[in-house]
Amino acid sequence: MLTQPFADAIVEAEKVIAEAPHIRTEQDLVEGYDYLAGSIRASLQMAWAYERDYPFFTQSTGPYTKMGLDNPDTLYFNANIREDREYVVTGTRGSTADVSFQVLNGDYSPVEVPDSLAAFDDREIEIAEDGTFELRFGPAKPDPGPNYFILGPGSSMLVVREVYSDWATERRGTIQIQCADTAGGSPAPLTRDGLAKRYGVSGKILLSRLRTFLAFPKWFYLNLPVNTMTEPRPTPGGLTTQYSSAGHYELGDEEVMIVTVPRSDAPYQGIQLGSVWYLSLDYINHQTSLTADQARVDPDGKIRFVISERDPGLANWLERTGHDRGYVQIRWQRLSRALDVADGPEVEVVKFGELADRLPFHDEARVTPEEWAARIAARQEAVAGRMLG
Question: Is the pTM of the predicted complex or chain greater than 0.90?
Answer without folding.
Answer: yes
